[in-house]
Amino acid sequence: MAEDRVRIFDTTLRDGEQAAGAAMTGDEKLEIAKQLEKLGVDIIEAGFAASSPGDMESIKRIAKEIKNATVCSLARANPDDIDAAWESIKEAVHPRIHTFISSSDIHMKHQLRKNREEVIDMAVAAVSRAKSYCEDVEFSPMDATRTDPEFLYALVQATIDAGATTINIPDTVGYAVPEEFGALIASVIENVPNIDKAVISVHCHNDLGQAVANSLAAVKAGARQVEGCINGIGERAGNTALEEVIMGIHTRKQYFQTTVGIDTTQIYPTSRMVSEITNFPVQPNKAIVGTNSFRHASGIHQDGMIKERTTYEIMDPKDVGWVGETMVLSKLSGRAGLRSRMEELGYTLDKEELDRVFKSFKVLADKKREVTDRDLEALMAEDRRIEEVQGFHVESVAIVTGTGLVPTATVVMTTPDGEKRTEKMEGNGPVDAVCNAVVCIIGVQPKLDEYSVRSITQGLDAVGDVTVRLRHEDHIYTGRAADTDILVASAKAYANAMNRLLALDGNEVQGEMQGV
Ligand code: KIV
Ligand code: ZN
User: Fold this and answer.
1) What is the pTM for the complete model shown?
2) Residue 203 CB less than 6 A away from ligand 1
3) How is the chain split into domains, by residue range?
């Protein structure tokens, strides 16, 4: 079974980053890559080297640091992209080039403007060039699920002959349904004479909500690599949620007759890290990693759980790294208590981090009677935001508002050069006034696409978690912050999005390279 296990190919840093508003800095990508290695994924698709100088740089850093997982770089089927991909990963212990070209009639006619022969020639040339650099080459016929099967078999056969060692069958537009997709994988195995020389991979998008089901159907049919992203982020409706595929195969190994080489206890910390870094919250009812995944509300279920856990739980929460909410901290808790709970939650803090977080913990504990695990996660997320995205920091927020008054906000911020700036602005509401003041200090005027606030815990003293999405020159930047005062959280979330805008501007995937 071990030999025949399913390889997990993570593309959070490439396809995941294509989700509108999920752009990450190089430091953040490296941090996620290290966590993915801890999780034990087989392949990390670190980016698309030709898409931007920022992507090239961050792939290079990941290639140097990551030792156990294969580091993969994406390339269109042209010489420049292949050369850039190799340049980005040549220092990796296990490098892989992943090249792709569209194969459906609809893409070839309208987007590529090439006929079938030309596409086969370009694919073969790209794989051969990639093979001249490295042994491990993956080829993807893009939009495979809408491709004429006979053409698909011919293209796959030709690229394996040219040296591809993994053949990925992407459901680029999320069109497939499980039975049909499983049958497509079975037909590739049956109709491509040299298929035994390559591993079959699948890459499913979630437009019809079938990405995980399609991937698992493909595994059942013989696919031995699954591509996807943590928390299912990705282009449009997202990509296959890897944590669901991993736990699906792990929990039902007898059914699938295969397994994965993953440390499942790292799933929850990885999910939380991706959510914190991308600022994409995980919905409470999300399978495997949602906060309600292991909560039993109904009396009958609770009764069953007390008598025997397996009556209502098919997975042990500990197996996915979920730490039950057993301990609540308060203002009387000390550093040791905080450190130990943080460790149980999967955070290893050095002395400096502990000092910082302990300070913010005390401020929070003064405002809240009980500090829960969700509050601690919010504190860590805040700390990461302050540490990682250099830029403007909110020092203080003061609001004057009330019936008959024009809401006015006075915001004090520190600039990246350490200078303090104060602005007093009016708005049509207190949040508007706060955001106007932040915009005035930073000096960039993006459009606010979305503002949302939710409470992290229950009760009137709950911490409010604010998410904002700002649009600037056709890109979306997400900012997030938490505070017991939602106006302070709003100012910090706005500043967080603006800092990301300043840090990422010019480094993003441009024009026709978007939306692979
Ligand atoms: O969705 C897709 O087809 C892709 C390919 C590059 C594999 O992301
Ligand atoms: Zn994709």
Assistant:
1) 0.86
2) yes
3) 5-278, 294-324, 328-368, 387-504
